Amino acid sequence: MTQRNDAFGLTYKPQLPPRHDYGIGIIGCGGIMNYAHLPAYTAHQLTIIGCYDVNPMAMHETAQRHGISTTYPDIAALLADPRIEIVDIAVPAWEQRAIAEQVLAAGKHILCQKPLAETLDDARAIVAAGVAAGRHVAVNQQMRWSAGIAASKDLIARGYIGEPTDAQIQVSTRTPWHMWPWLRDSAHLDVMYHSIHYLDSLRYLFGDPALITSRHSQYPGQAERAETKTVTVLDYASQLQVVVMVNHHDDSQDVYATYRFLGSKGIIKGTIGLLYNYPTGQPDTLAIGLHGQQLVDIPLEGLWIPDAFIGPMASLMDAIQHGHPPITSGVDNIGTLQLVHGSYASAQQGVSINPHDL
Prior knowledge:
There is one protein chain. This protein is an alpha/beta fold. The chain folds into two domains: 2-140 and 310-327, NAD(P)-binding Rossmann-like Domain (Rossmann fold, 3-Layer(aba) Sandwich), CATH 3.40.50.720; 147-305 and 337-357, Dihydrodipicolinate Reductase, domain 2, CATH 3.30.360.10. The protein has helices spanning 31-43, 56-66, 75-79, 93-105, 120-133, 147-157, 190-194, 196-206, 304-307, 310-322, 330-349, and strands at residues 2-5, 10-14, 23-27, 47-52, 70-71, 86-89, 109-112, 137-139, 164-172, 211-217, 229-235, 241-247, 256-263, 266-271, 285-290, 296-297. Strands 10-11-12-9-13-14-15-16 form an eight-stranded mixed beta sheet. The two termini are 31 Å apart.
């Protein structure tokens, strides 16, 4: 759900549904929970019942920092608390399936961290567990609610640029991988844990492509095991072509993170503010114009972190109330993971991949 920006008629800010006092339990008290999830929930006065982490120190520090009154000795104790209706899971992807299945079996709705899983089999198993339990599975693909992407969605849906013909997301920055030391030795890096945001947002804007072609590379001497430079092309049946170019090892003073969406009538362009000073960031920028006319800058409010993080939770609550899938449902997220795995298959095989075959 969203609310309207009266100055320019843009609908881009997340909005909570009428009822938003669902009891929330937290599993995983790491960095992203502390500097993104919980600040967003606190700002919107959501009801955080309690938290759990395998690291008791992290759990108690999180509870103290965010005024959470209840901590639990294990996941079973959290799930036994009848006040909890939604569980927000923020754990490494390879641990998520077992936890998600346990939570769903206990009758709770879940918001999972992205990626939903590192394998399509595990992701599909989580989705199946949600269906079996009759509970919603949502995925925290919160870039859809970042100001630049959400405003672009509104403009494209209203036909402002006409028929989409070309789209680009280009990022060249210095990513602080030290913030996630567990990723250094991961067999997958940029596409699985970073560019997944771009692939998901592009699906949100333009739908599913027919083909994906990707090339992966590394910076000489990098500490990370896997890909930190990627170029990915999405080809659509409509002749729309999308390019995503990412470099995580830009040591220059000229880093950038931009998006550019062209159509038969006009253009949308801007910057992804978070990546100019991660994780503090700055607001996204947006400029729009019809072909033959001067571009108009439109100021956007809010930061990707933490402001966009209310979006997936708000969508999940709305889904619970009104009986429709969350915007970032587990079922929808399978399409994003098909692009992720299609990217790796393309890079490994040197061919274009139909993601629907995966």
